[in-house]
Each structure stands twice: as C-alpha cells, then as structure tokens.
C-alpha cells in the first residue's frame, strides 16, 4: 500500500468515528425510506476543519435537492435500476446509491473525491441495511466505468465541474451506459442535453421546510447539427 493510500485509509477511519459520534441519524425530507447522518447545530464540523488542512466543504453532511429528487425517483420507479449495475457519481452522503440499492440494483458503486464522503456513504449504507461500495477516486479523468447506469445527483453547481462531468458522460453514453441526473435546475445544468423524466418539489441545501421544483433527467447524446439541404 502506498503512503497516499495509507493516509486516505486513516482519514476515512477517523472520519467514520467522527460522523458516528457527532452527526445524528435523521429521517430524510421527502424520502421516509432512508435515514442519514446529517450535520446539526451540535456536530462541530469546524473541529474537522481545524484538525485537517485538506478538509473541504462538507457536502456529505447535508441534503441536496439533486440527490433528494433522484433518490425519490429511483424509489418510485425501481424499474429504472432494478437488476442493473449502478454508479453513483459524486455520492456525498450516498443517498442516491442507497436508493438505487433499495430499488434492487444488482451492484452499487458510490464514487467521490472526498474521503469524508466515502466514510459517510459507508455508514449511511449500513444504517439503511444496504450494500454500497464506496470508492475514493475521480472517475471523471478516466475511461467509462464498467456499469450500466450512472446516477448523478447535484453535480452542476460550478461551471468547471459541470464541464468536467459532461465531458466524462459523453463517452459513457457512447458505450451504451444510461445516465440519470437529479438537479434543482442549477445554473450550470446542461439543459440542452436533457430530457425531463419527472419533477418533484424537494427541499434543497440549508432548508427542511421549503421546497423547490427539482428534475430527474435522462442525459442524451448531442444532436449533430442539421446538414444544409442541397
Ligand atoms: C453537492 S454534493 C452532491 C452529493 C450527492 N450526490 C447528493 O446529491 O446528495 C457534490 C458531491 O460531488 C463530489 N465531487 C465533486 N467533484 C467530484 C468528482 N470529480 N468526482 C467525484 N465526486 C466529485 C463532492 O465531493 C460532493 O460530495
């Protein structure tokens, strides 16, 4: 094992201990089938930031509209993933992968670049009695993975990330992988490439009381520009 792998293993183990001790397990708004560790006023996430210079935004400790709407969709329409291999890209808390597993996916891999998300996903899958394999890696830099369906919950919140994810998804589509996206219509959502499958009103980050319309989309191949007629 390399030093980097050792370092990541130790960080994931410490993150697991912190999350178990400090983030209460709570029901998820709009998804009563799933409970997750979620940051609360007493969680003291600032302590992680103080201890760990690499500590980033704790996306994994919160609910996001994109993940909520996609999880709701998978639970309502299990046929979308039942019996298929699913990759949850940018898993965060793992909510989408957990919903896919509950819907009967044959295998669920949950990828994230944040070791804290990997720890949270493992714990959250376990408390929901589901098997999800969390992997710490940036798949967007590589070849299309061995999967049938890629689920993308709320990854279009920054221009550079949206561009990176879209560039990764195109060759995946070309390999015949289906792509489902959940998103509350954020600024960098590639709307021209999407077909709306369903819409639900779900809470977004920072609120549990108000909801906003959020969509589940199929990501589709870019239409070639029409050839001029002769
Ligand atoms: C807004 S959160 C959404 C989390 C979850 N999908 C949901 O909807 O609740 C975005 C997540 O994407 C992860 N992420 C960002 N860039 C990534 C990349 N290149 N590959 C994998 N995950 C990434 C972040 O670490 C974060 O956990």
Automatic annotation (TrEMBL):
First and last residue of the signal peptide: none
Membrane spanning residue stretches: none
Superkingdom, natural source: Bacteria
- GO annotations under biological process? methylation
A GO molecular-function descriptor: protein-lysine N-methyltransferase activity
Alphabetized, the UniProt keywords read: Methyltransferase, Transferase
Q: Which InterPro entries does this UniProt record tie to the protein?
A: Ribosomal_L11_MeTrfase_PrmA, SAM-dependent_MTases_sf
Q: Which PANTHER family match?
A: ELECTRON TRANSFER FLAVOPROTEIN BETA SUBUNIT LYSINE METHYLTRANSFERASE
**Name of the featured protein:** Putative nicotinamide N-methyase
